[in-house]
Design a protein that fits this description.
This protein is mostly beta strands and about 120 residues long. The protein is built from one helix and eight strands; from the N terminus they run E-E-E-E-E-E-H-E-E. A hairpin with a 6-residue loop joins strand 4 and strand 5. The longest helix has 6 residues, at about 75-80. It is globular and about 55 Å long. The mean pLDDT is about 90.
Length: about 120
């Protein structure tokens, strides 16, 4: 079965620019998010500056796995759902002459901790 890439990042449009292939425009299909929780952290060590502790919680808006589908999501979502092998984040950013991002070159997942291929 042919693999389909679906954009579930916060970006309205992504352009996949794999090396040696034509660019593929991926319109946003949804926006998957991690809930944010904020807790008082007292003050920053050695200062009187207030500190807020933040952690990420439940993921929302993520479709169920589907045969032949890879969901492009944020790196944060991929990290929050390590059991989902159908998730990847855009990496290898491509920029224009002015420095604006115009696409990405490859799909990525975090490397296993402590292992170097």
């Amino acid at each position: 079965p042919m693999t389909r890439l679906l954009n579930f990042t916060p970006h309205v449009e992504l352009v996949y620019r794999p090396d040696g292939a034509a660019p593929v425009v991926l319109p946003q299909q949804g926006n998957v998010r991690c809930a944010e929780e904020y807790l008082s952290g007292g003050t920053l060590a050695g200062t009187d500056l207030p500190l807020t502790l933040m952690r990420y919680g439940l993921v929302s808006g993520l479709p169920e796995p589907a045969p032949g589908v890879v969901y492009l999501v944020s790196q944060l979502v991929v990290s929050a759902c390590p059991w989902r092998q159908d998730l990847a984040f855009p990496a290898g950013l491509v920029r224009d002459e002015g420095g604006s991002i115009i696409g990405f070159r490859f799909l990525a997942r975090p490397a296993p901790t402590g292992e170097v291929p």
